[in-house]
Amino acid sequence: YLYQEIFIERCYEAAVLRLPEPEPAMKREGGGGNDSGNLGEKQRLNIVDVGANIGLFALYCKRRWPSTSRVLCIEPMRATSEVLRHNMDAFKDSTLCVEVAAASKSQGEVAFQFFPEMPGESTRHPDERSHRQRVFRRRIESDLAKMRGAKTASAAAAGKG
User: Fold this and answer.
1) What is the spatial order of strands in the sheet that 69-74 belongs to?
2) Do 112 and 87 meet the contact criterion of CB atoms below 8 Å apart?
């Protein structure tokens, strides 16, 4: 699911403003863009991945801008950050950094709801997460009902022919 969102659909890019075109290595593997947007040697692209989870977006950034990016991964959940650190350490790349912290406008400590079986669903705002889950569930149920209706209509039409 996360791989699909990040690497295939590239949906995280919508939240990133004015990033340069990918470097040639990414383009050879099917990325878009042109060479003129590459960063110069002296420029450095600093990316902060807040709520980095296990680090897939950081790896995407390093793949897309391999020689010019530095990625700081911020992940508040201790268990998840251990997996994140393991993943980043495997690349032995000093431009991939992990910070176990939460990002906020103010200093202090806050509680998070942690879901060990689904760490990507862990949240600071469980009420919002519950609401989104209910909306998502209703949408799936609605889509399934439509699909069942289409199947029923299709079967009825086939029976009349």
Assistant:
1) 45-50, 69-74, 96-99
2) no
Kindly state the tokens that stand for 86: 């393991």
Specify whether the CB–CB gap between 56 and 40 falls below 8 A.
no
Distance CA 97, CA 81 (A): 11
d(CA 90, CA 137): 37
Helices H / strands E in the chain, number of each: 5, 3
* Residue 108, helix vs strand vs coil: coil
Q: Which of 8-12, 75-79, 114-118, 134-138 has the highest mean pLDDT?
A: 75-79
Q: Which of 66, 60, 74 is nearest to 9 (CA)?
A: 60
The two structure tokens encoding residue 102: 């939460």
The per-residue pLDDT for range 99-112, each reduced to its tens digit, is 998 888 888 887 87
Q: How far apart are CA 71 and CA 96, in angstroms?
A: 5
d(CA 26, CA 73): 21
CA dihedral sign, ordered 61, 63, 68, 74: positive
Helix (H) or strand (E) run with residue 48 in it: strand 45-50
